[in-house]
Amino acid sequence: MPLRFQSVASDKQSFARSGKLRLGEIEVNTPVFMPVGTRGSVKSLSSEDILELGYQLILGNTYHLYLKPGKEVLDHFGGLKKFMAYPNALLTDSGGFQVFSLSGLFKFEEDGVRFQSHIDGSHHKFTPESVIDMQRSIGSDIMMVLDDCAPYGSSVERLKQALDRTHRWAKQSVEYWQKNENGQNLFCIVQGGVNEALRAESLHYLQSLPFPGIALGGLSVGEPREEYVRILESLAPSLDPARPRYLMGVGTVLDILEGVRNGIDMFDCVLPTRNARNGQVFTSKGKVNLRNESHRLSTGPIDPECSCKVCKTYSLGYIRHLHKVKELSAFSLSTYHNLYFMKQFMDSLRISIENQEFGTFYTHWKKLYAS
Amino acid sequence: MPLRFQSVASDKQSFARSGKLRLGEIEVNTPVFMPVGTRGSVKSLSSEDILELGYQLILGNTYHLYLKPGKEVLDHFGGLKKFMAYPNALLTDSGGFQVFSLSGLFKFEEDGVRFQSHIDGSHHKFTPESVIDMQRSIGSDIMMVLDDCAPYGSSVERLKQALDRTHRWAKQSVEYWQKNENGQNLFCIVQGGVNEALRAESLHYLQSLPFPGIALGGLSVGEPREEYVRILESLAPSLDPARPRYLMGVGTVLDILEGVRNGIDMFDCVLPTRNARNGQVFTSKGKVNLRNESHRLSTGPIDPECSCKVCKTYSLGYIRHLHKVKELSAFSLSTYHNLYFMKQFMDSLRISIENQEFGTFYTHWKKLYAS
Lengths: 371, 371
Known about the structure:
The structure is a homodimer. Chain A is of the alpha/beta class.
């Protein structure tokens, strides 16, 4: 279904805003954090867990799903949502970023990018049209365009080349999508590295096209925090208020705070799930390393202020033990907690905006998650 | 609490019987299969999963728990059940079998066995008394004695030596336990390899001591199936009807069928959980290898006759995909299914005995799981 976005409240001191994103039957409160279910599974959790946690919108990775299970399987099952027994809303990236970051070798061509699978070295090609077709097979509610995400540290020449390619492909993509929207939405991706002029140019051009939403790509890719913040601040005043804004691959509590302060509505990141598997959990008092010796005899929960089922049932000492002996349940219990934390964090963040308390919220959490 | 065992029904054609094993507040229907929670976790599942599956009795491994988290932690938490938030009944082995099978080096002494940890090579010693103390710290409802389990293929001389040691330690153990029963129960372990005379001697001697239950050790340790069945058949007529009988480390569907036919009440095995992680699940039609190419487009459940939440929610094709890409949820979903299967299998086995249909049940399942 075509999305509808409605702004609910705006912070008077910043560009922070809350809103409602409607994707068919699904209503998503923003700002929203989307857990990442790369290959049709949010790592270590089941689809029931995701529903129980209350997530209405998750992310899948087109590059991975294209390689496995592949288009034929997804077509046969009627899309990823049916395949993984997850009935809520789904966003997929275009696969471009993984081609650049995971694939051993890739080569740009006029009409797309050739690459080798990171799994078996087999040869493939993505074009702006083929990644939309793939995302149609996946059946995502929000699809992303194929773009050229130049790595941090690229020359201005390389950034300009990336922008030209990204814009050319974006135009092709939106035209291809409009021929058969089929209830799915397509977002563009603003590029330009940490160059404010190029970022402004990219935003201006892409907002002139009829994309239902705007994504910022190429941020949180290794640049210093000040650069990250500077670019967000430079773009915030020019973001179209009518459309949802998505900051791709972000992030940490700190990065989300900066994003929201600069008008971002949507986030996704593997950190809450990956860190959980590595034994780092998020709490109302900051980050906790579960493997620390100091937790060996802790009979209390991970976070006494958390009411997730993990904190209600298990002690920190037990979860530490599970991590120390590498039990699989260590990964699932810690992941469950972190995704519960992220959901609560985003909910309270949204409420702070609606209560005109975002400034206090921002200061409180920035201090807790400073390091 | 001291156990109470009550025979409920007996098959007229075999030694199969059903019963009720009461461990304090917990009532366990027998024959029973106990999932293995080696290090305080049934691998890939949470304690809630175990309760949801309906298991009243699970197994922990003393050797592993002694090394990690260790006695101090278990004492501090008030035992393993509180540590892992599992309120039902618990059985622990003595750790002896793991000393012989896992530990790099071990050496018998008059009063116990010295060994090196398989984790860090550190030196330790188990005695009949120390393993009971450790199991008191674990807080198991059923403890096992330290025994000498000679490997399959041992000479008669070695088997006799093992029997002497096992019997001597058993007598010490039961005396040590009786000084402070503390609501826990202690089972002896019958040894003797595949030598019928030694097995008979062992059973006769150990049944003369006041153990609340009798276990058979040293079976399903590599001997051919015929030897396994021959020993069970030789012991069945002499098993004390008043006490529960536990066949350690067994088993497969086939091995359980033979065990029950020969009067066994209790079983434990890592196979249902380990095989699940390796992609093999049990169904009403036999074993299924989840990784098979033939399941790629299977939209139906693992087992259409199974009503577990995995079969009610996910397709075989999806679970195959999760295994192929090694998602952690592949392990937990498959394990959940297999433990559900084992629970249903044991329940229907018990009902077949109570309905005087065990012969038909035995033939049906033996055929399905022959290979």
